[in-house]
């Protein structure tokens, strides 16, 4: 190929590549989204009720729960209560096989009878020794016996009296042993200590319970499920706002559409440290008249710490919103704010304008605001929600 022809082809190829690059650059420039005005939505300042709450989670439990155990060891012979069984005080709820305790009680009764007989025998010996001493003293008065015989008779009386006291102690010991065996036999029958409902049964017929080290738990009885409590922990940064008697609203996962109510009954002083955070246990009393709440449910709690009526309020997002302006301008505006002051951005003819307000009571979703020019219905800017923005595909694609 001639050299001139090769140079001409190279120039045309270079020109073609330049044209192709310019076309691709122009295409991507056309795909660039146009610069838009800062995206935001507007909401109005409203007037109404505002509630401040402290949120926490807790567990539902009965007000009074009794763990029923066994003070004696043995084999479960019969069960007279099961899960969800209502019981009254004194009802028999379980029976431990009693034959061993009955045999021990019979043995203790026989030992008591034997000890009483030995005591009576010792009493006879005392009476005999006393009569002998009286007789010897009479003989000594007539100079018929020596002084040593009188001393021996007196010593024999003392020995008989001591032996009698020993036998009396043996009778008391045998009587106590009989009471002990009677106590064991009585406790082989398990009674309900309170009126309530059995919420847990931990044994079956034929199972052996051992009470040698600690009393095993046979049943758990809740006294009254129409009145329950929530045990929740409140962070130390909020505990100063919590007071006994404050109303409480809560929800449980079992009834997501239902709102329950209760009352703060106790703020316990014992601190609990969890991962370096100090918390305090709070007890909330709950009315459960329809028995819809069950022990062990997890409650999401909102303790009402303050309430105000007829106040001007805005969504919390309005106080957090910052338009895309220079950081230096934002810093200058914030330096001018006093204690408790915040900035609301109000739309106007020339765009968004900052408006200084005094922030008051802060609720879960809204905050009280006051200040010059703040009126019911005033429009303020809030961040535009991502779901309201149209999704736009960017970049080059062949499909």
SSE order and pairing:
Layout: H1 3-31, E1 40-44, E2 46-62, E3 65-69, E4 74-79, E5 86-87, E6 92-96, H2 99-141, H3 147-186, E7 189-191, E8 196-201, E9 208-209, E10 217-222, E11 227-235, E12 247-252, E13 260-274, E14 277-287, E15 298-315, H4 316-320, H5 327-335, E16 341-348, E17 351-362, E18 366-370, E19 379-383
Antiparallel strand pairs: 1-19, 2-11, 2-15, 3-10, 4-6, 4-9, 5-8, 6-7, 8-10, 11-14, 12-13, 12-15, 13-14, 15-18, 16-17, 17-18
Could you name the ranges where pLDDT drops below 50 across 5 or more consecutive residues?
386-399
- What overall geometry do the principal axes of the alpha carbons give? elongated
Q: Report the major sheet.
A: 6 strands, antiparallel, barrel
CATH fold call of the largest domain = Elongation Factor Tu (Ef-tu), domain 3
Output the CATH class name of the largest domain: Mainly Beta
Radius of gyration: 46 Å
Strand order of the largest sheet: 2-11-14-13-12-15
Global mean pLDDT: 87
Strand content: 35-45%
| Secondary-structure element series | HEEEEEEHHEEEEEEEEEHHEEEE
Instruction: Give the end-to-end Cα distance, rounded to a whole number of Å.
Output: 42 Å
By CATH, the superfamily of the largest domain comes out as Efflux pump adaptor protein, beta barrel domain
Task: Quickly count the helices.
Answer: 5
Tell me which CATH architecture of the largest domain applies here. Beta Barrel
Number of strands: 19
What is the helix content? 25-40%
Number of domains: 4
């Amino acid at each position: 190929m001639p050299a001139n022809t090769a140079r001409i082809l190279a120039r045309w190829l270079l020109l073609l590549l330049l044209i192709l690059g310019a076309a691709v650059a122009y295409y991507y420039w056309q795909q660039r989204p146009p610069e838009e005005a800062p995206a935001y939505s507007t909401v109005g300042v409203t007037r109404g009720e505002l509630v401040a709450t402290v949120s926490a989670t807790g567990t539902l439990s009965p007000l009074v729960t009794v763990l029923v155990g066994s003070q004696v060891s043995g084999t479960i012979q019969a069960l007279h209560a099961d899960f969800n069984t209502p019981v009254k005080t004194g009802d028999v709820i379980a029976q431990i096989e009693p034959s061993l305790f009955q045999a021990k009680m019979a043995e203790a009764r026989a030992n008591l009878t034997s000890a009483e007989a030995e005591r009576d025998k010792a009493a006879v010996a005392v009476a005999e020794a006393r009569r002998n001493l009286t007789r010897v003293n009479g003989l000594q008065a007539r100079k018929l016996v020596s002084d040593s015989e009188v001393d021996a008779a007196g010593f024999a009386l003392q020995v008989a009296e001591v032996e009698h006291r020993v036998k009396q102690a043996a009778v008391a010991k045998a009587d106590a042993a009989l009471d002990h065996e009677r106590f064991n036999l009585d406790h082989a029958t398990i009674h309900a200590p309170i009126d309530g409902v059995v919420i847990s049964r931990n044994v079956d017929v034929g199972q052996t319970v051992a009470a040698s080290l600690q009393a095993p738990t046979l049943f758990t009885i809740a006294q009254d499920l129409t009145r329950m409590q929530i045990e929740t922990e409140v962070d130390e940064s909020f505990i100063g706002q919590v007071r006994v008697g404050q109303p409480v609203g809560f929800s449980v996962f079992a009834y997501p559409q239902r709102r329950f109510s209760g009352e703060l009954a106790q703020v316990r002083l014992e601190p609990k440290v969890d991962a370096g955070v100090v918390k305090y246990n709070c007890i909330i009393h709950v009315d459960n008249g329809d028995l819809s709440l069950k022990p062990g449910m997890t409650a999401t709690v909102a303790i009402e710490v303050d309430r105000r009526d007829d106040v001007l309020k805005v969504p919390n997002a309005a106080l957090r919103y910052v338009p895309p302006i220079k950081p230096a301008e934002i810093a200058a505006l914030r330096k001018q704010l006093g204690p408790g002051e915040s900035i609301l951005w109000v739309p106007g003819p020339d765009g968004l304008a900052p408006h200084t307000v005094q922030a008051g009571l802060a609720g879960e979703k809204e905050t009280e605001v006051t200040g010059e020019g703040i009126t019911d219905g005033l429009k303020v800017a809030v961040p535009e929600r991502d779901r309201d923005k149209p999704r736009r595909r960017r970049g080059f694609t062949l499909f």
